[in-house]
User: Fold this.
Amino acid sequence: MNASLNEKLRAVKWGEYKLGTLFDIENTLSFNAEKLVDGTKYDYVTRTSINQGILQTTGFVNESNINASGTWSLGLLSMDFFYRRKPWYAGQFVRKIIPNISIPEKAVPFFSTILNKQKPILLSVLVRSVDETFKNISIKLPEIADGEIDFDFMESFIAELEAERVAELSAYLTVSGLDNYELSNDEEDALKNFQSLKWDTYNLEKLFGKATRGKRLKGDDRIAGTLPFVTAGEASEGISAYISNEVEVFEKNTTTIDMFGSAKYRNYKYGADDHVAVVHTEAVPMKAAIFVTSACHKAAHTGKFDYGHNFYAKDADALDIQLPTKDGKPDYDTMTALISAVQKLVIKDVVLYADRKIEKAKTITKH
Assistant:
């Protein structure tokens, strides 16, 4: 956050409020996912923190279980608050947070942030005590006068913060070259001809040599540093720490496959523990290496490997993957064009979103 925004936070007048005076907290009438029907009008919200708590969408089920829009859901697993802009259904262990005051749409992110700041308190009590604990939590809000909340400040603060972040995003897209989302002729042809591609089976060891297994480094032995240390898992792409220990450093543009068979592309140097196999795709063009990683994931992440049956480097050596082929060899040019095209299609909406937000910010600034 820049200096001007910090100064605004320090300069504003703050008042103290009990959450119980601002919101009601209520049980939701929950049901199991088996009762859902086809449709996308309603979100089915569970206690998970993934995907804003949304497990899936559904059509109309019944009137009595619908929760109103303009409320927050509270998942009783991680105590995450998510604002709901449309009516929603709930699974088990979800509360709904209903505002007792009229909150402008542009001030909603301000309140969402404040609510989620209370997670440590709510996680420290039993589930049966969550409602009462929530009501008695005191928070501070910007005030115009005693008891009068300064919504205008919240809206302007959020608008300025958003403009700052979007400007950073736009600058990153420009510097990285991701702001160019127009497909080249080769990329268009690659997408058009995808269904008619020729594929063949290739063995990883024959393509890239023997995979390398990382070495164990206990958590207590890790010394803080800047080198990403990769272990098994999906959180943070498997990076469990940044270290300065003397370990084998693997080159960027390689693929890791963890003990569960989950493959990830690495475009940076890193260390790895003994639950990670490194496939040496260094000599393959970057976007083609990303394609290879996807092929590895599809072949290895099948449910065959788990805590009782780990994926090791020897399994990588034996792994066969499907790749586009030309003249009896992997067609890395086509793989590169396909990944480049997909990247542009995915990033297009992000670039257009950033452009729209920047233009809107300019309009607000002028006024």
